[in-house]
């Protein structure tokens, strides 16, 4: 089945922006969900009898590190702003495993190491039982097998979907900058209370990972310019642009980075880097 044929009950198209709603909307609710890496399009399918509690755990970096799962490692690496979360459907607890297995079979999620749905209620199924569950929801056993919705029904489902989806608001330039700073937009320098440089990181995420805190904590410490745990965090915005001039020092062009400059002027990246550093022609 194509992904486009599945209409989620609710869509949160940015886990970073909708953190509060993701947790509060789903407290004590039971259902199946999908997490999508917006960069690679890789999927993760899971179910829970308390979605709000499950999602709260996702926003705890320390807990993600301890679990050491593919999806957790991906979130720590790419940041929550690069993931969306869909509630595929809400259901009764006794239907959780069947529905999770259905979506695993249908969408073939890359982040799911085990392709057989496990019990979220504490039971462990035998191999034969898991096979029966998988077979019980395929083909003619599927509740929607052979059904064809009328035009009116499809239109009503579409309207229902549009009413429940969380539309991404148009972000201000300042908001976009804040999101980019959390990932790869800045260098982060750590100083002691005597303003002595202790350590330097290539991003806010890497600094947060090193100190075992959330990226938002580092970001807040930078913005407030106040010590955190007797450390001072400062940031410098990266500028990877390459400026090109002719022999008379007349400006020709500015390119976003060395890779684009290399392609534009057909010069190997290593050669280009060497000549930039030496400031030779």
Task: Explain what you see.
By secondary structure, the protein is an alpha+beta fold. The protein has 3 domains: 162 residues, GIY-YIG endonuclease; 61 residues, Orthogonal Bundle (Arc Repressor Mutant, subunit A), CATH 1.10.10.10; 37 residues, no CATH class. The chain is 40% helix and 18% strand. It contains 12 helices and 9 strands. The strands form 3 sheets. It has a 4-stranded antiparallel beta sheet with strand order 1-4-2-3, with helices on both faces. It has a 3-stranded antiparallel beta sheet with strand order 6-5-7. A two-stranded antiparallel sheet has the order 8-9. Strand 5 and strand 6 form a beta hairpin. The longest helix is centred in the middle third of the chain and has 14 residues. The termini are far apart.
Fold blueprint:
Layout: E1 10-12, H1 19-24, E2 31-37, E3 43-48, H2 51-58, H3 61-67, H4 70-78, E4 83-90, H5 96-107, H6 127-136, H7 151-164, H8 173-183, E5 186-191, E6 197-201, H9 204-211, H10 215-224, E7 232-237, E8 242-245, E9 251-255, H11 258-265, H12 269-278
Antiparallel strand pairs: 1-4, 2-3, 2-4, 5-6, 5-7, 8-9
Helix pairs in contact: 3-4, 9-10
């Amino acid at each position: 089945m194509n992904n486009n044929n599945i209409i989620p009950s609710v869509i949160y198209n940015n886990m970073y922006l909708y953190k509060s709603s993701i947790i509060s909307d789903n407290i004590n609710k039971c259902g199946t969900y999908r997490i999508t890496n917006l960069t690679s399009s890789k999927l993760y399918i899971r179910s829970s009898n308390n979605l709000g509690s499950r999602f709260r755990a996702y926003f705890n970096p320390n807990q993600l590190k301890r679990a050491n799962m593919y999806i957790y490692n991906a979130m720590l690496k790419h940041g929550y702003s690069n993931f969306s979360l869909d509630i595929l459907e809400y259901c009764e607890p006794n239907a959780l495993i069947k529905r999770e297995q259905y979506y695993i079979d249908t969408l073939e999620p890359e982040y799911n190491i085990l392709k057989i749905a496990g019990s979220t209620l504490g039971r462990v199924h035998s191999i034969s039982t898991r096979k029966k569950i998988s077979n019980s929801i395929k083909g003619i056993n599927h509740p929607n097998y052979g059904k064809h919705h009328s035009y009116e029904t499809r239109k009503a489902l579409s309207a229902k979907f549009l009413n429940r989806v969380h539309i991404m608001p148009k972000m201000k330039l300042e908001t976009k900058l804040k999101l980019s700073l959390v990932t790869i937009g800045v260098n982060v320098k750590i100083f002691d209370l005597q303003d002595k440089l202790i350590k330097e990181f290539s991003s806010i995420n890497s600094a947060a990972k090193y100190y075992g805190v959330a990226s938002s904590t580092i970001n807040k410490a930078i913005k407030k310019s106040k010590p955190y745990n007797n450390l001072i965090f400062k940031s410098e915005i990266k500028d990877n642009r390459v400026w090109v001039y002719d022999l008379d020092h007349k400006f020709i062009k500015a390119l976003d980075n060395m890779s684009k400059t290399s392609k534009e002027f057909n010069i190997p990246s290593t050669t280009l880097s060497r000549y930039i550093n030496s400031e030779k022609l």
